[in-house]
Each structure stands twice: as C-alpha cells, then as structure tokens.
Amino acid sequence: MIQLSNVSKVVASGSEQLTILHSLDLEIPRGQFVSVIGPSGSGKSTLLGLIAGLDAPTTGSIKLDGHDITKMSEDELAELRGRLVGFIFQSFHLIPSLTAYENILTPMEIMGVNRASEKAQSLLDEVGLHDRGHHYPSQLSGGEQQRVAIARAFANDPQILLADEPTGNLDSKNGGHIFDLLLKLNRERQTTLLLVTHDQQLAGLADRKISLRDGRVAEDALLNSGTLTIGH
C-alpha cells in the first residue's frame, strides 16, 4: 500500500545542506496501524508530509497503492490524494466561517460525492457529534474540533489516513477519545493508519512502531508479533 524506496530529504540551511531524512526504505501493508515516534527534529512530520505528497523527496520514490507520486504532476497528485489519502493535523485546520457540518460537506461537494449531505451527517454521527453540526469551530471544544477534522478526513473514504500529533493539543481525556476513534475507524474500515505521536503509551498500541532518530530509522518493531528490526 505504501512503499518508500531510497527516500531522502535535504534542505538548504543558510549556505549548508541539512539532511532531514537519510535514505529510507519502508513498506506498510494495507490496513496496518503504524505509530511513528522520535524526538523533535527527527523527521517524523517530514516523513508524513512526503507520504501525503505535500512535499517532494530529494531522492527516491514513493508509491501509494502502486502509484508513484514522485512522478506525478500537481493535478495528478491532487486527484490521487483526494481519492486515497486523509490527513489530520494537530491544529485541526477547520475553516472558521463554516459550521462543523459544512466543514465535512464542502470537500465532498468539491469532489462530487454522491449524496454528500447524507454522508456528512453520517460522519458527524460516527464521531459522536450528531447534535453539534450547526456549531462553528469557535463554539466547539478542542476535542470536538478534532473529531470534526477526523470526520472530514474520512469524507473521501481514504485507504490511507495520516495523522500528525492529532492528540497533541488535547488533554489526556479528549486525547484518549480521539485515539479510540482513530483505532475504531482503522479496524472497522481497514484504513491504513500512520500516526505521528510523542505519546509512548499510544504508540505502543499500534500494530507496528517506527522510531526515528536524526532522520534515520532507529527501530522498526512489529508489536503484534514481537518481531524487531534495528536500523535501515
């Protein structure tokens, strides 16, 4: 489902070149829940952005469902991303002038989804916000806003869900609810879930845990079988 071959990311830092991610080979099968951990600056968010096609690697290829996104035009990439990928940010990224319901509905209308209004309401129900759809983001708690963001991310029935610190701005209770919701959607829909988190406890509940350090894979552990691979 997700294949990275010799993927690296180098950026200019003043007069020098800074390597954010060193050459990386990675394969994530359909439906797997993978947590990505590591200290700040280890390359976690960069990795997620590359897989989402929000940034381009310096070297290597990235394939989503067999499609090499590094060879696509911006239009082709946008079409594939709209069809395959959902993205959840730490800071929610809701449109403040739209209600919760409209934040979910609008992307589906843009994509021409059939029965978009019914689906938007169904997604609100699924994340436990049946009676909150008419509220604007400013009228919702942080946990409720993140649930709207999750519903929006599932609007295109993504095969891949990328979540960058989705519980980072929430208290432990709301963070736990958000994590449970992501896990439920992963299990019920067989959505491949890639979760960047600082929370070791949450990371340990994944099928697989990848630890990054200084832009390299320090550890790649299959938690459900106990298999452990060091280094890549």
Query: CATH H-level name... which superfamily?
Result: P-loop containing nucleotide triphosphate hydrolases
**CATH architecture descriptor name:** 3-Layer(aba) Sandwich
Q: What is the mean predicted local confidence, pLDDT?
A: 88
Total DSSP helices: 7
* Largest pleated sheet: 7 strands, mixed
Helix content: 25-40%
The helix-strand sequence is EEEHEEHEHHHEHEHEEE
* CATH top level label: Alpha Beta
What share of residues are in beta strands?
25-35%
Tell how many strands the DSSP assignment holds.
Answer: 11
Largest sheet: spatial strand order: 6-7-8-3-9-10-11
Rg over alpha carbons: 18 Å
Overall 3D geometry? Answer: globular
CATH topology: Rossmann fold
Distance between the termini: 19 Å
Task: Explain how this protein is built.
This protein has a single domain (2-229), classed as P-loop containing nucleotide triphosphate hydrolases (Rossmann fold, 3-Layer(aba) Sandwich), CATH 3.40.50. It contains 7 helices and 11 strands. It has helices at residues 44-52, 74-84, 100-111, 116-126, 142-153, 172-189, 200-203, and strands at 2-13, 16-28, 33-37, 59-64, 67-68, 85-88, 160-164, 192-196, 208-213, 216-222, 227-229. Strand 9 and strand 10 (216-222) form a beta hairpin.
